[in-house]
Amino acid sequence: MTRSLAKPAQRSELPGRYYTDPEIYAREFKTLWRHTWQWVGRVEELTNPGDYLTAILGEEPIFVIREADGNLRAMHNVCPHRGARLLTEAQGNCKKLQCPYHAWIFETDGSLRAVLHPQWFPDLDKSKIRLSPARVDTWGGFVFINPDPEGESLLEYLAGYPEYLSGWNHRFEDLREVNRTVYEDNVNWKFLVENYVEDYHFSVAHAKSLVPMFDVQNIRTVPTGRHIPIHVPYSEIPPTEPAQLRNWEKGTISYQGFIFPNMMINTGPDGASIWRVIPLGPERTRLETINYQTPAHYAKMPYIHESWGQVMEEDFAVVRLLQKGVNSRAYQVSQLAVEHELGVAHFHKVLGEYL
Ligand code: FES
Ligand SMILES: [Fe+2]
pLDDT band at residue 306, thresholds of 50, 70 and 90? Predict the structure, then answer.
């Protein structure tokens, strides 16, 4: 386990063009998204042999499949014949993989089983052709894929994050999806992350939505590895709004935070809300927010859809302001608040190692 306590930076040097430039965006694909572990789904979506999920990590089409022996296997979703996308659905079940272009057939372990009109390929050695491997691993019921077949394990990559979350008195393995909401907006993905990892904006943007629930003075940001756990204590005095009271828990904390490069976890008394940031272009980003509850949560407090909607509106409104300023010749980040903007400094530092 690596654990680094970054000092709060006074300044950040990430230039404005990093939030608009297609060249930087392309470089992020090559150096960052291609080599990091990213969350793609849940193990309960891959229960039976042949169950698969597809995803695009940066610009890497990938899939993960449950094999007959029960293991998960991840591979690049690209046919080695001429490069066509192999699996075209978001998820499904198959016993073998057949390319939709010229019908080559692959086993679920990636080996080539058969080609159409084999007599037209006199030199083909089937044993030399297979789907390109990626890596898959799980933690807490979450399935992570790394497009890079080599490098540190998921557990090394997570660098103490699971230990941080073990403070929550529920098992992440027991979570089941109860709601999914997707947002898309004209902002760079990094601005969404930066806004998430700082709490300096809470008393302005979330004065009515979050401030009554949380002790915002005492939020603590404690980076570990590339990631940014954020300890958010609940307020001493219970909020008066029923919806806020439901998400409030006396004397404990909400375990929140960011797993680099694009996952956010937020625990609460009624379950966990887990978010995924997906870049769609230099100035276009999708945010998927998925709510989970354990059976115990569900029995006690069935999920109510509205709980995060208002906060999201407030966050997108301020992130759009950042995107509007970034092309100005006057754009700068002159100072970052001690502690309460520490997450931004840490995110920039980690980005700098990739870019
Ligand atoms: S591209 Fe897949 S069989 Fe031709
Ligand atoms: Fe916010």
Answer: low
Q: How many domains does the chain have?
A: 2
CB of residue 101 inside a 6 A radius of ligand 1: yes
Three-state SS at 108: coil
Please state the pTM of the whole predicted model.
0.94
pLDDT, mean over the chain: 94
Q: Is the dihedral of CA 298, 302, 306, 311 positive or negative?
A: negative
What is the side-by-side strand order in the sheet with 97-98?
Answer: 97-98, 105-106, 112-114
At how many degrees (to 10) do helices 189-196 and 309-325 cross? 120
Is 85 touching ligand 1 by the criterion CB < 6 Å?
Answer: no
Residue 260 sits in the same domain as residue 238: yes
Cα gap 55→164, rounded to integer Å: 27
Range of the domain at 99: 37-154
Rounded to the nearest angstrom, the distance between the alpha carbon of 112 and the centre of ligand 1 is: 12
Q: What's the CA-to-centroid distance between 221 and ligand 2, angstroms? A: 14
How would DSSP label each residue in 135-177?
EEEEETTEEEEESSSSSS-HHHHHTTHHHHHTTSSS-GGG-EE
Q: Is a pLDDT exceeding 50 seen at residue 14?
A: yes
pLDDT at 307 over 70: no
| Helix locations, the chain, DSSP H | 22-31, 154-158, 161-165, 189-196, 202-205, 242-246, 295-300, 309-325, 342-354
Q: Report the distance separating Cα 156 and Cα 149, nearest Å.
A: 15
Q: Is 227 left (phi over 0), alpha (psi -120 to 50) or beta?
A: beta
Q: Is any ligand 1 atom within 6 A of the Cβ of residue 84?
A: yes
- Same-domain status, 78 and 192: no
Q: What is residue 304's predicted lDDT score, i.e. its pLDDT?
A: 80
As given in the structure block, the two tokens for residue 195 are 């806004």
Distances (CA, A) of 188 to 6, 10, 321: 25, 23, 12
Provide the 10 A C-beta neighbour count for residue 281. Answer: 11
- 240-266 pLDDT, tens digit per residue, is 998 899 889 999 999 999 999 999 999
Q: Is residue 87 part of a domain?
A: yes
The residue among 119, 121, 175 whose CA lies nearest residue 143 is 175
Sign of CA dihedral 182, 188, 190, 195: negative
